[in-house]
Automatic annotation (TrEMBL):
Matches recorded under CDD domains: GT35_Glycogen_Phosphorylase (cd04300)
The reaction(s) this protein catalyses: [(1->4)-alpha-D-glucosyl](n) + phosphate = [(1->4)-alpha-D-glucosyl](n-1) + alpha-D-glucose 1-phosphate
EC number: 2.4.1.1
GO molecular-function terms, A-Z: glycogen phosphorylase activity; pyridoxal phosphate binding
Residue(s) carrying N6-(pyridoxal phosphate)lysine: K682
Biological function: Phosphorylase is an important allosteric enzyme in carbohydrate metabolism. Enzymes from different sources differ in their regulatory mechanisms and in their natural substrates. However, all known phosphorylases share catalytic and structural properties. Allosteric enzyme that catalyzes the rate-limiting step in glycogen catabolism, the phosphorolytic cleavage of glycogen to produce glucose-1-phosphate, and plays a central role in maintaining cellular and organismal glucose homeostasis.
Keyword DNA repair: no
Organism of origin: Isoptericola sediminis
Name of the protein: Alpha-1,4 glucan phosphorylase
Keyword Ligase attributed: no
Length: 834
């Protein structure tokens, strides 16, 4: 195994330049140096972007020594490491997080103030790297933060998409997508390392070669690829919270090979060859925006193999000592598969071991099985990735062959264990036969992994009982749960400085890295003074939100109403429709005179959601929300007690201002459909009360905060399953519930579409005809829960008591705890000594 490029590794003996002085003067000096020498400008002429870039690089300098030291220690001590493989990292802005991690917030703002610069203004200049779709991508970002804060030797591997998740705009209330050109203004947080490029092969064919003579002859396979691309690594710092540990996130960018071999392509066809080059560079061009319903696009499979092949090669070549005996790989790494997107890593490691390292098949399989663990993030059948065999065989012929052999041996095991149960064999096969032959990536992952985990108790239970039940019967010990978590650094300490101060004043600042200590706040829930101060924080956060939305979107939100928030990807199973039906019902009540204004608790309903561009029903629902908003907000009476705000382009930055201001958190998916949810945790930690179903991690939130501080409604998972089994007929609810009928009729009659009955017809007929996620079945129960919300909100003291208890009892949802669970149950790695 040759090393790529001639690179000297940092070793213990490499002298490290000293960090800049952590003082205001030191910071000013370093900052001006950056502005002059790197940005090439002077203060008087510097643009906001110049100033931002110089600030980002200055902060980076303070973290550099820790980064180099962490890397050196890792290389020197060769501990077991976690390699997190994820096609998405939804990082959010970096500046503030880095400042907080390095404990430089005050120094930086003082230093810049002395130069007449407002740090707050520079913060706004950062375009967040939106390299993920939603929950799964944000989870990966939280996890690498926690791993660094816990000083676990870890590396995140992923893709440096040139375009992240699309920028959402509304035109007449309908979603339009614009490219997210996040790199345009420069990318001060990344370090390109073209000298560490990795070559990745695709296509071609497999040759069978015979080695040896006569009876000793063995047939081996040799992959003759058709084309290649290069992967260039870009490194990002992942700073732990004030602990001197800075881990690495390594994202791969695709580039065409240098000495382009024209013969590989259509011989002599120059134009065709160049076209193919562009094609190669397309691989890391854009993030696929489908959340939960991936499409079987060839380019997507190319992306998956591309980053995984780069990452495995990189780990073996760069992080292990030269000549390391790969038989011992499981002692040194756990590759954590973030859903099925990186599962092609399994046949890739087999290929490396068998074809390149000369391992016998069984030896290679033992090593491979020891190196991988798989996290599943869904329960929806349409979200389980499946790759048509002809597509996979065309792109990765040797990998397909390897998958077939893995499957043959696996099915042999199933036959033996089941007494030749042919139906079971067909059900469990890695290869599906219908509608066409295809590779079931979740099955491949489950067969290969040491451990398979779901992301909340209920989800893991349903994986064992339903989605992967056959596998759980065969290998019960393989299955485990790790309930998701969120990083308290970004989502409390950074996003909610006022609450953070209040907490720290009460219990000290240990909670930031030990979130269970929030428990110490419990007695303060009964302290009227503390509750008053808590309310002050909420209301200041509402002011901050109002400012933010006024500036960003020109949206005016009142600051003295209940803030009712539903933010997440738009999907039918999440049931944004249910909440808009509640809004319509309130509107209808007031307009029809059945509901007096005085009887309504004034509320502002905020939505944030992107729909996958090809998901027509989701886009319809976005249109409906915006059209209802327009009618409600412009109605002279209704708008006195009810407002709807739908800021476009919901992202991590918006979440950070919105969540700390929220009173009510909407977590209203149909039970059994939301694997976990992580927004739900962020709201609870910021003192919002949840209205929610018994789904995903809501179940655990409710258990911890207590029934009195959570508004539960709706069918349970077993109930929903029973209703579906018996034959669900949504029209019955329409016929029997007059309030529901009035709300649906308003939509159908064109109340929100200028009298046009066609506009939202698809939504209405879907709800009345199929209603796959039982919106109508849960409608009344939801309405009743909203009534309980109103009653509770009328008593501010009782409400804030519940809110404080939500904060105090949600420490469990720190991603630090998730990491401990992964370490104990799956990874068995340990912190680096510092
Ligand atoms: C779950 N994304 C949440 C969260 O565990 C859960 C799928 C296909 C292609 C691209 N992205 C996806 C997801 O499946 C996803 O985000 N799943 C979510 O993972 C973290 O909290 O319940 O829906």
């Amino acid at each position: 195994r040759g090393r790529v490029g001639s690179v000297t590794r940092v070793t213990e003996s490499t002298p490290l330049i000293a960090s800049p002085e952590p003082s205001v003067e030191g910071f000013v000096r370093e900052y001006l140096r950056e502005l002059n020498f790197t940005q090439g400008t002077v203060l008087e002429r510097a643009s906001t972007n110049d100033k931002y870039l110089a600030l980002a690089r200055t902060v980076r300098h303070y973290l550099m020594a820790s980064w180099m030291r962490t890397t050196s220690e890792h290389l020197r001590t060769q501990p077991k490491a976690v390699a997190y493989l994820s096609a998405e990292y939804l990082l959010g802005r970096q500046l503030d997080n880095a400042l907080i991690a390095a404990d430089l917030t005050d120094i930086a703002s003082e230093a810049l103030a002395s130069l007449g610069i407002d740090v707050a203004e520079l913060r706004e200049a950062e375009v967040e790297p939106g390299l993920g779709n939603g929950g799964l991508g944000r989870l990966a970002a939280c996890f690498i933060d926690s791993l660094a804060t816990m000083a676990i030797p870890a590396i995140g591997y992923g893709i440096r998409y040139e375009y992240g998740i699309f920028r959402q705009k509304f035109e007449d209330g309908w979603q339009v997508e614009k490219p997210d050109r996040w790199l345009d203004n420069g990318s001060p947080w990344e370090f390109a390392h073209p000298e560490h490029e990795v070559t990745v092969s695709f296509g071609g064919h497999v040759e069978t070669v015979s080695e040896g003579e006569g009876a000793d002859a063995v047939e081996t396979s040799r992959w003759v690829p058709g084309w290649e691309v290069l992967g260039v690594p870009y490194n990002y710092m992942v700073p732990g919270y004030r602990n001197g540990c800075v881990n690495t996130l390594r994202l791969w960018s695709a580039r065409a090979t240098h000495a382009f071999n024209l013969e590989t392509f259509n011989y002599g066809d120059y134009a065709e060859a160049v076209r193919a080059q562009t094609f190669a560079e397309n691989i890391s061009k854009v993030l696929y925006p489908e959340d939960s319903t991936p499409q079987g696009k060839e380019l997507r499979l190319q992306q998956q193999y591309f980053f995984v092949a780069c990452s495995l090669r990189d780990f073996i070549d760069q992080l292990l000592p030269q000549g390391f005996d790969l038989h011992r790989l499981p002692e040194r790494v756990c590759f954590q598969l973030n859903d099925t997107h990186p599962v092609i890593a399994v046949p890739e490691l087999m290929r490396i071991l068998v074809d390149e390292e000369g391992f016998a098949w069984d030896e290679a399989w033992e090593v491979t099985q020891g190196c991988f663990a798989y996290t599943c993030h869904t329960l929806l059948p349409e979200a389980l990735e499946v790759w048509p065999v002809d597509l996979l065989g065309r792109l990765l012929p040797r990998h397909l062959e390897i998958i077939y052999r893995i499957n043959d041996e696996f099915l042999e095991e199933v036959r033996e264990a089941s007494g030749d149960d042919a139906v079971l064999v067909r059900r469990m096969s890695i290869i599906a036969e219908h509608p066409g032959r295809a590779v079931r990536m979740a099955h491949l992952a489950t067969v290969a992994a040491t451990k398979v985990n779901g992301v909340a108790e209920l989800h893991s239970q349903l994986l064992r009982d339903k989605v992967l039940a056959d596998f759980a019967r065969l290998w019960p010990e393989k299955f485990t749960n790790v309930t998701n978590g969120v990083t308290p650094r970004r989502f409390v300490r950074m996003a909610n400085p006022r609450l953070s101060e209040l907490i720290t004043e009460a219990i000290g600042d240990g909670w930031v890295t030990d979130l269970d200590r929030l428990r110490e706040l419990e007695p303060l829930a009964d302290d009227p003074e503390f509750r008053r101060r808590f309310r002050e924080v909420k209301s200041a956060n509402k002011e901050r939100l109002a400012d933010f939305l006024a500036r960003r979107d020109g949206i005016e939100v009142p600051v003295d109403t209940m803030l009712d928030v539903m933010v997440k990807r738009l999907h039918e199973y999440k049931r944004q429709t249910l909440q808009i039906l509640h809004v319509i019902t309130l509107y209808d009540g007031i307009v029809s005179g059945r509901l007096a204004l005085e009887d309504v608790v004034p509320r502002t309903v905020v939505f944030g959601a992107k729909a996958a561009p090809g998901y027509a029903m989701a886009k319809q629902i976005i249109g409906l929300i915006n059209h209802v908003a327009a009618v409600v907000n412009n109605h002279p009476e209704v708008s006195r007690v009810l407002r709807v705000a739908f800021p476009a382009n919901y992202n991590v930055t918006v979440a950070e201002t919105l969540i700390p201001a929220a009173d009510l958190s909407e977590q209203i998916s149909l039970a059994g459909k939301e694997a976990s949810g992580t927004g739900n945790m962020k709201f609870a930690l910021n003192g919002a009360l949840t209205i929610g179903t018994d789904d995903g991690a809501n179940v655990e939130i409710r258990q911890l905060v207590g029934d009195d501080h959570f508004f539960l409604f709706g069918l349970t998972e077993p109930e929903a399953a029973a209703v579906a089994e018996a034959g669900y007929r949504p029209a019955t609810y329409y016929e029997e519930n007059a309030t529901l009928r009035r709300a649906l009729d308003l939509i159908a009659r064109g109340e929100f579409s200028g009298g046009d009955r066609q506009t939202f017809e698809p939504i209405v007929s879907n709800l009345l005809g199929e209603d796959r996620f039982m919106v109508l079945a849960d409608y009344q129960s939801y309405l009743d829960a909203q009534q309980r919300v109103e009653a509770a909100y009328r008593d501010p003291d009782a409400w804030s008591r519940s809110a404080v208890l939500n904060v105090a009892r949600s420490g469990f949802f720190s991603s630090d705890r998730s990491m401990r669970d992964y370490l104990d149950r799956i990874w068995h790695a340990e912190p680096l000594e510092s």
